[in-house]
Specification:
alpha/beta, globular, binds zinc ion, 39% helix, 303 residues, Arginase, Chain A
């Protein structure tokens, strides 16, 4: 399995006390490097994404605005929750570049799985705006690249972050070649998704307090049959671990074994229609201990 990251992703810093902190990458890297599966993982550095890839899923004006406003010093704000320091543009370009690199390696060669350990996260970034700690929509760029450059016909994105993947829905709402399965606490930030009625967007709103048992039942009812019928040629995870019971930002009650479980279930579908190909991209997860343990369970299931 491939583990793709870059030191630039730890230099993006939105200020002391911001939950989306550089320590998140460190927590996952340490857990993975200390694991028994360490010898089955190849560690790679993420390239910088090109503007052409960014323009595929974002409006040109928005991309150009981010490049032009990237600060040489201090911090500028893109959204109430999202800001840029002098390293943020490169971090955001590495985060998206990791996913493009993963698609090239996983789809075109025999490396069947990859985890992109990157920040800033991406699934809240819409076509024309940064939002919720996200600057560019990393996973959407990867899915678009798999379709247009590698000629795939169907890509599925399973988003188990505790927040709705509104950015990914915004980008692919008119593109049935991408199925999005997004589970999320509702009502909760960003308060979208519960009313969507599209065949290729499968949203699963869950009340605060939902535990692993209820979560697994809901995934078995809503996600797994839809994914199976879609016959994806590549499955991607928007892997946010903030539905963990120890997460300080949200109120679902999953634990690391639930992440292992959903990963294994989705792999069974990937083995049927996608030659086992899975690419996972880090989104949220803000309790460092829970994040390390949950990401490790997810990676153990993928390895
Ligand atoms: Zn989240």
């Amino acid at each position: 399995m491939l583990f793709i990251s870059h030191p630039d992703c730890e230099l993006h810093d939105m200020g002391t006390g911001h939950p989306e902190s550089p320590l998140r990458i460190d927590a996952i890297s340490k857990a993975v490097k200390a694991s028994a599966n360490n010898d089955k993982i190849t560690f790679l550095e993420a390239p910088l994404v090109s503007k052409d890839h960014l323009y595929r899923v974002h409006d040109k004006d928005y991309v150009d605005m981010v490049f032009e406003n990237a600060p040489d010093e201090g911090i500028i704000r893109l959204d109430p929750d999202t800001s840029m320091n002098p390293h943020s543009l490169n971090a955001a370009r590495r985060a998206a570049g990791a996913v493009i690199h993963a698609v090239d390696l996983v789809v075109a060669t025999s490396s069947e799985r990859a985890f992109c350990c990157v920040r800033p996260p991406g699934h809240h970034a819409e076509r024309d705006r940064a939002m919720g700690f996200c600057i560019f929509n990393n996973i959407a760029m990867g899915a678009a690249h798999a379709l247009s450059t590698h000629g795939l016909s169907r890509v599925a994105i399973v988003d188990f972050d505790v927040h709705h993947g509104n950015g990914t829905e915004d980008i692919f709402q008119d593109n049935p070649a991408v199925m999005l399965c997004s589970s999320f606490q509702h009502p909760f930030y960003p308060n979208s998704g519960a009313a969507t009625e599209l065949e290729h967007i499968i949203n699963l709103p869950l009340p605060a307090g939902t535990d692993g048992h209820a979560y697994r039942n809901a995934v078995e009812m809503k996600f797994l049959p839809a994914l199976d019928a879609f016959k994806p040629e590549l499955i991607m995870f928007s892997a946010g671990f903030d539905a963990h019971k120890d997460d300080p930002l949200a109120g679902l009650m999953l634990d690391e074994e639930d992440y292992r479980w959903i990963t294994e279930k989705v792999i069974q579908i990937a083995d049927k229609s996608a030659d086992g190909r899975i690419i996972s991209v880090l989104e949220g997860g803000y309790d460092l201990d829970a994040l390390g343990k949950s990401a490790l369970a997810h990676l153990e299931a993928m390895t």
